[in-house]
Amino acid sequence: MRTLPIALFLLAACGPSDPCRSSAMHLRRRYAERYIGHWVVAHGDTLTLPQMGDRFKLAEIVLDTGRLVVRRTCHFRGTLVFQVPPETLAVTWSGQPEQALIFGWPAELGPFAGIGATRVGDSLAGAILFDERLGVRVPPGVTARFVAGRAR
Question: In this structure, is the dihedral angle defined by the CA atoms of residues 11, 72, 37 and 101, taken in order, positive or negative?
């Protein structure tokens, strides 16, 4: 019976360690490659939420290769720069073949779930996503879309 504790210890030691160094992360890095960079919003909607009275206008998106563990999953680091209100937010993001999803907005900023963006030629096009769980009702058709190009 002494071998059971030793076997359990060895299994625990061989278990997944840092998710940012896993083999799955190598594939995710490859998917993310097309989104990495500094993007400047060329056209973007200004969004006003009636419940909050705040206006939001996205100016820049920086999608970096730095990594961060978020709830046992590895995400890349990024930054969102808003023109209105003038604010810079540290966010995390994940790249997939069809889109990049940007997460990590502070709850006090508003009812946002993040940003969904995709590459269209040399541009990054997307929209701000809303989090229905926070109780803010957004009228149908309200979006905050943007198109961004690489910073030069």
Answer: positive
